[in-house]
């Protein structure tokens, strides 16, 4: 069986000087777990890797347990495969916002939210932001940027679906890295 490419998205590491994980150590960690073609992207915890066996959910549990044992704290880890990233980019409902990476974000959701959960979030979306949920992805167009978005801060609390967000530059960079994995 040939190895399959995955991306691990970590939540809550290297934010505000807390829960520090050096990317070189994270790469070694993945290699020590038996993964190959490991590469990391920026300090917020993104790792592209290839695995010979396992699906995204199984790998997320395996990596999460080993991560907590090594670093002594829990980080929610979303693992997605290359086709998920391709679909994420191809289904972007806000192509006009993609030109400015600070205005478009994608949230990897742990599961597809229910209609009721999305309706609750829709009620809170009263500012300039727009969002759309497609499966286990929430797309957020924030014309004033994520830092100034009150709505963005409400998403995890109101939606109540565990998630982690990446700006569009990171999404595109991770897709490119995943597409190249194993081709060197």
From TrEMBL:
<dbReference type="InterPro" id="IPR012545">
    <property type="entry name" value="DUF1697"/>
</dbReference>
<protein>
    <submittedName>
        <fullName>DUF1697 domain-containing protein</fullName>
    </submittedName>
</protein>
<dbReference type="Pfam" id="PF08002">
    <property type="entry name" value="DUF1697"/>
</dbReference>
